[in-house]
Amino acid sequence: MIRDIKGQTTVRCDWVDLSKPDYVAYHDEEWGVPQLDDNRLLEALCLEGAQAGLSWYTILKKREGYREAFSQFNAVEVTSYSESDINMLLSDSRIVRHEGKIRSVVSNAKAALRCASELGSFRKFIWTTWAECSGDQRYKIFSKRMKKAGFKFVGPKTLESFAQTVGLVNDHSPECFRYPIIKSLIEKSSPTPVG
User: Fold this and answer.
1) Which of 112, 157, 173, 187 is 20 to 30 A from 31, comparing alpha carbons?
2) Is the separation of the CB atoms in 150 and 107 below 8 Å?
């Protein structure tokens, strides 16, 4: 766990590949920070779904392409995508060209807007739904509720990664230098204490 970066000894989570500066930056600056912006939550959910069967680093390298292809994950804009738009995305090398995953972004944008209209924001839906799920089957319950709300590519493993990414839970190793920072951010952001 002790890593040497730029002459400094820093303790990071074991999964960080120090040979990839963008991966280190992702861990050090983004992973686990509570996400409160609806568009960024939609992005995280869709990118975690896109990762299914792939490495996160593959998706991280394509993230800017996804943002460009999906209107910065503006749910209103994405819901207006036509069959022609989807067909164009199927040949877009900036993203993973998997029809189900591409269509899931449009479905997820529609579901996010429905949830936001009911509760005031997509963020409120995510944090409230998460807070209502608990126990050993937490991610299975979370998955069932997300699917019931109309979301796609939201299996338990995908939602576990999503929860880690957007700060619903603090899965940094307790020895990692980010652990206490993320713990404090989650406590300040969450409607109910988690992780």
Assistant:
1) 112
2) yes
